[in-house]
Amino acid sequence: MQQKWYKQFWPWFLIAVPAASMAMGVLIVYLATTGEDSLVSDDYYKEGKGINQDLSKIHLARDLGYVGLLEVSEETVSLRFQSSAPKDATALRLVFFHNTLKEKDYVVMLTRNARGQYVGYPTRSLEGRWRLTLSDIDETWKIRQTIGLPYSGTITLAP
Question: Which residues contact 141 (CB under 8 A, 6 or more apart)?
């Protein structure tokens, strides 16, 4: 006597493959319709035009000869300039941009101390891979760099 079809392995296996495909399709449609893509800008044209302005700010930093030496620890972020330094800047902006999550972006304000170093105190952990942007308060010049933290030693920031 033969077994009934529903007690055998192969019919259930053949039914499971399309059923799993349909379940995954429903899940993908759900994630695509409810998730928000924070990487896509609503005003991409305006941001595209702004790239040229950013490049001119980077070229200005290169022309002024700004090269910074950055040290990052859990408590402090310190920066000193290697050759030439901004004459009138008492404070600088150091922006940590996360590669994929906009809500993790973080700004550290660096103020100049008596020794000519710029020091800031982060209030959150800075571990991970970051795109840094160093600029003065008015953003007349910029230096960009990609780093991975934690890093023991000095990081050279050059335009």
Answer: 57, 58, 60, 61, 64, 66, 135
- Residue 96, CB-side half-sphere exposure with 13 Å CA sphere: 23
In this structure, the strands spanning 68-72 and 155-157 are antiparallel
Ranges of residues in the chain whose predicted pLDDT is under 50: none
Those residues whose C-beta lies under 8 Å from the C-beta of residue 122, and which sit 6 or more positions away, are 76, 77, 106, 108
Q: How confident is the model at residue 108, as a pLDDT?
A: 93
Model pTM?
0.65
For residue 156, what are its two tokens? 């050279």
Q: What is the CATH number of domain 66-157?
A: 2.60.40
Q: Give the tokens for residue 94.
A: 């150091």
